[in-house]
Batch of 2 targets.
Target 1
Amino acid sequence: MTKIIHLVPILMGSMIWSTPTPASEPYDELVQARAKIIGTSKLVPGQQVWRQQNHEKFMSQIEGIWISANEIDLSTESVFHQTCRDLGFTFHKLNDYSFEMFLPAKPPFRKDEIHSEYIFKDGFLYNIRNDIEQQFKVFGKTQGPKVLRNANSVSALIALGPNTMLEIDFDYGTPTLWGRCPSG
């Protein structure tokens, strides 16, 4: 009888380990990330087709007011709405391959407006052009090296959903999390 009692935990343990388990956590995480970033958990139709489809979907969702969530307090929704009013960037589609990011002048926050043009390069990549004369007005002539360094750059833009996107600046290696502001 004593031998049987000792065998019970061993038998129970072997039953637990031999029971089929659902998909693993690493697999689930990979499938979710692929669906979020690539846009599907299925095999993509080919890189060229995927790049064009991704770009078209991205451009169809770009219009609106967006805020950078990197440097704001998101502890309350009212702060979010206030930030949208005071510091919102307007993203405006210019054509099928480019859009403008415009930050209007809003004293006392900013006395001058800021414009950047994003031009589709490939996949998630966009070339960015900044108007250096306008940048000198915003940042001053003393910031010349910084203004000139940022005259042209490249970023990856990844839609995380219809209201959030991640921008990775390749010049500085920094991410910016963008959130869409409610309309109206």
Note: Confidence is low (pLDDT under 50) at residues 1-21.
Target 2
Amino acid sequence: MEGVVFLLVGVLALVGPLVLYSLVRKEHESREEMGRREAERAARRDLDEER
């Protein structure tokens, strides 16, 4: 029984970080890229909307 628990913990310790890595990579691929001018314009719009 202890061997099964040890094996489960070991598998989770190896698989968990890989799953997190794949989720982060997937999120990174779907991000919107913009140029400097577009980014500055978007940041100014955010500030104007908060007022």
Note: The chain is about 85% helix and 0% strand.
